[in-house]
Specification:
Order of helices and strands: EEEHEEHHHEHEE
Strand order of the largest sheet: 5-6-7-3-8
Structural class: alpha/beta
CATH superfamily of the largest domain: P-loop containing nucleotide triphosphate hydrolases
Shape: globular
CATH topology of the largest domain: Rossmann fold
CATH architecture of the largest domain: 3-Layer(aba) Sandwich
Oligomer: single chain
Helix content: 10-25%
């Protein structure tokens, strides 16, 4: 069932339960995310953070019960960078896994510069460090015009400077009226952050 979104709401979860095979991961998850909101999903390992985020994005490979309503204007980014190793940074950002094609090369180059990769536009991704590859993936956040961002472990494998840069970008997106739901094991003190602890919904 898909509940109707209230005006100003970008995501609604109503009594959502997730199952994998015979095992129930979560039950009774309820959440409403309005515009300009920043939410972090927390929980112990195996609590279902990634599974819930994938269910929200419509990518779940397990049983989903309850109601999920989501804005059609959304970006999902998994915990892996989602890059083609034999393509350049610029080529990777031209094509997104969702099928979106970005044709403005200047905008792509500006996104790479924003994450500290100016001068790496034509570098093949497989030749970059893990941290640099992560930054290429995160550069998509400087290209996306989606209202709702669903990000799985976006702070993985980035240094303190990259963490501060990413936090600033997430807050800027929310300040502009967008919303972010992300998972992370890392503590953060971003302004306006709201936390949903999935341990309280453990089956």
């Amino acid at each position: 069932m898909t509940p109707a979104l209230r005006q100003g709401s970008l995501l609604t979860l109503a009594d959502v339960s997730l199952e994998r095979g015979a095992r129930r991961l979560l039950q009774g998850v309820t959440l409403e995310v309005g515009s300009a909101e920043l939410w972090q999903l927390v929980g112990s390992n195996g609590s279902g953070k990634t599974s819930l985020l994938r269910a929200i994005a419509g990518l779940a490979r397990l049983g989903v019960r309850g109601a999920i309503g989501r804005s059609d204007s959304f970006l999902y980014q998994g915990h892996l960078p989602g890059l083609k190793p034999l393509l350049t940074c610029r080529e990777n950002l031209r094509w997104h896994g969702s099928g979106r094609v970005y044709t403005e090369m200047q905008r792509i180059d500006e996104a790479l510069a924003a994450v500290g990769l100016a001068g790496y536009e034509d570098s093949v991704v497989m030749q970059l460090s893990a941290g640099q590859q992560r930054r290429v993936g995160l550069a998509r956040l400087w290209l996306s015009d989606a209202a709702l961002w669903l990000l799985d472990e976006p702070f993985t494998a980035i240094d303190l400077k990259g963490t501060a840069l990413l936090e600033s970008r997430l807050q800027a997106h929310c300040s502009a009226g967008g919303s972010v739901v992300f998972t992370s094991h890392q503590p953060t003190a971003m302004d306006g952050l709201q936390v949903l602890d999935l341990n309280q919904y453990a089956a």
